[in-house]
């Protein structure tokens, strides 16, 4: 998978792998990068980190939940955070969150969930998850029912191709 | 966890959506799961046979990719095993598939059962058959992984070939 250096437009090879216990210590020391969430709370859960292939610095984190019950049969993205250097208009590297979301889609296929992925959105973010990643919101907006953002198989396939191939 | 409002003071919504997914703190998780399940149920009802096969093939492709990239070697996950999976997921019989890629059905069966080594022409034909979804290089890496394991662990060949080495190097590093 490739992430993009915004200044040079160079494509950089990245890897996603399970977080290790030592990484939690590194995250604690490097609070400036991951200041919004307490990742220690997710110890023991399925947490992945994204880093450049030749560099150990963690650029992004994601916690997923594997819903294996037949009714759900999908991967849920519980939490995702990109390191502070790469958030907003001053970011240096692009596509970190895209790669992590695409990884969740790939895992969904791999585990037999046929590409189904969902996440809980903040209301303000719904249109942006739709326009940026092609996710769908259900139930239809305006129904005042609790809803989720969904990556259907066709969208998951597209995200895998865009970010991971 | 800091609140969404705090993050929103620093970044625009589109920037937040491109960098964060927030955990559900609404206490309405059950209702959300239900919304997802209903959505999925409706979509599943419209799912075609082709959709099912695509999902099965993607699962297989990602499993092969991950197996190639792991250092673990599993004897049961040989070339023939994955080829058999490929054929089955396409819902084809061996004979029908052999005809599609113009290979003798006996040869195909021998490769699947590990009685014959896969050839270069076969993996090229698999790439073409799959419209490049299962590229030849992927099948090649699978063969290479098996070969590497055999090379490391084959004592018999070492015993056999050692007879041909009349004089060993004076150096051992």
Provide keyphrases for this structure.
heterodimer, A: 165 residues, alpha+beta, Aminopeptidase, nine-stranded mixed sheet, 9 strands, 30% strand, B: 173 residues, mainly alpha, 434 Repressor (Amino-terminal Domain), 65% helix, flat, Lambda_DNA-bd_dom_sf (chain B), Helix-turn-helix protein (chain B), Cro/C1-type_HTH (chain B), DNA binding (chain B), N-acetyltransferase domain-containing protein (chain A)
Word description of this protein:
- Chain A: This is N-acetyltransferase domain-containing protein.
- Chain A: It comes from Chitinophaga niastensis.
- Chain B: One of its GO terms (molecular function) is DNA binding.
- Chain B: This is Helix-turn-helix protein.
- The complex is a heterodimer of chains A (165) and B (173).
- Chain A has 165 residues and is α+β, with helices and mostly antiparallel strands.
- Chain A is 27% helix and 30% strand.
- Chain A has a single domain, classed as Aminopeptidase (3-Layer(aba) Sandwich), CATH 3.40.630.
- Chain A has helices spanning 21-29, 96-110, 126-133, 153-164; strands at residues 2-5, 11-18, 46-52, 58-67, 74-82, 93-94, 117-119, 136-138, 148-151.
- In chain A, strand 4 and strand 5 (74-82) form a beta hairpin.
- In chain A, helix 2 (96-110) crosses helix 4.
- The radius of gyration of chain A is 16 Å and the shape is globular.
- Chain B has helices at residues 4-10, 13-17, 29-45, 49-69, 79-89, 94-100, 105-112, 120-129, 136-153, 155-162, and one strand at 20-21.
- In chain B, helix 8 runs antiparallel to helix 9.
